[in-house]
């Protein structure tokens, strides 16, 4: 069953701020910090699991497995990137069913042609508005759990302009989408205009290094947003820290304890990842 917190927060007007999760270590750390909602990023789950770019290469089967693992691991509600629904209308139906069974609280579908591309990279192509409207209708009909939120993303800005992207978002809302996501906006003005002219809750993508200006929660609320994901922060921070540690280790004669590199406490991490439960079990059932 979907965690109702996403639907409830939207209904109550509480802003949702969700970090991107690329692996299960990040998931348990996000739990430790106290995030109530997290984002299963297609870009970063693909990169971490398979070392591949977010270009429609990873299949539905691979992605739903990663998402299901995240739902089992995290205490937070999970909003999951489902790309284009991995094909046509039947694929969308199957994808929504599979993600719902995995236990996600939100599923994001986009209007790119299959295979898709990362929203902050060039050469994106979108399907017709009518085709995406049908996909949203299929997704709504496929949903069983009313707590599951359907998020409709449009990548039409690059090829069709802001006005067309807004028209698409409104069409997707009329088709039944719960949240709208106009991707890769370039300025506060575009963000404010989209929020003002789209008739429904709006999600922002705060992607570090991407095309959209980075703004605080307060600033995003002022612009008109109801929720935001920041999918890249944890992955970029992790990659930088790993490279820093490895370079320092190599540069200091191959020491596994390089100077100037902070490390997570090993005993704390054992507890974080669940070893105390294992030890308690072994203590209870240990043989003399």
Automatic annotation (TrEMBL):
<protein>
    <submittedName>
        <fullName>Isocitrate lyase/PEP mutase family protein</fullName>
    </submittedName>
</protein>
<dbReference type="Pfam" id="PF13714">
    <property type="entry name" value="PEP_mutase"/>
</dbReference>
<dbReference type="InterPro" id="IPR040442">
    <property type="entry name" value="Pyrv_kinase-like_dom_sf"/>
</dbReference>
<keyword id="KW-0456">Lyase</keyword>
<dbReference type="InterPro" id="IPR015813">
    <property type="entry name" value="Pyrv/PenolPyrv_kinase-like_dom"/>
</dbReference>
<dbReference type="GO" id="GO:0016829">
    <property type="term" value="F:lyase activity"/>
</dbReference>
<keyword id="KW-0479">Metal-binding</keyword>
<dbReference type="GO" id="GO:0046872">
    <property type="term" value="F:metal ion binding"/>
</dbReference>
<dbReference type="InterPro" id="IPR039556">
    <property type="entry name" value="ICL/PEPM"/>
</dbReference>
């Amino acid at each position: 069953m979907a965690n109702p917190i996403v639907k409830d927060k939207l209904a109550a007007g509480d802003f949702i701020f969700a970090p991107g999760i690329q692996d299960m270590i990040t998931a348990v750390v996000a739990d430790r910090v106290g995030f109530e909602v997290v984002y299963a990023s297609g870009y970063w789950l693909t990169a971490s699991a398979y070392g591949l770019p977010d270009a429609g290469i990873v299949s539905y089967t691979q992605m739903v497995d990663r998402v299901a693992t995240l739902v089992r691991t995290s205490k937070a509600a999970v909003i999951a990137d489902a790309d284009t629904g991995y094909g046509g209308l039947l694929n969308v139906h199957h994808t929504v069913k599979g993600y719902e069974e995995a236990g996600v609280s939100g599923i994001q579908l986009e209007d790119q042609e299959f295979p898709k591309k990362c929203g902050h990279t060039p050469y994106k192509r979108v399907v017709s508005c009518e085709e995406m409207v049908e996909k949203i209708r299929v997704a709504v009909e496929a949903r069983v759990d009313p707590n599951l939120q359907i998020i409709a993303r449009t990548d039409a800005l690059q090829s069709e302009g802001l006005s067309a992207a807004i028209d698409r978002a409104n069409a997707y809302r009329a088709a039944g989408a719960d949240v709208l996501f106009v991707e890769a906006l370039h300025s506060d003005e575009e963000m404010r205009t989209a929020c003002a002219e789209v008739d429904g809750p709006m999600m922002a993508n705060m992607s570090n290094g991407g095309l959209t200006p980075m703004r605080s929660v307060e600033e995003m609320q002022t612009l008109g947003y109801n929720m935001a994901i920041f999918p890249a922060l944890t992955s970029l921070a992790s990659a930088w820290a790993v490279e820093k540690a490895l370079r320092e280790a190599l540069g200091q004669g191959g020491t596994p304890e390089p100077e100037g590199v902070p490390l997570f406490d090993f005993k704390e991490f054992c507890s974080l990842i669940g070893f105390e439960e294992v030890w308690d079990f072994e203590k209870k059932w240990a043989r003399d």
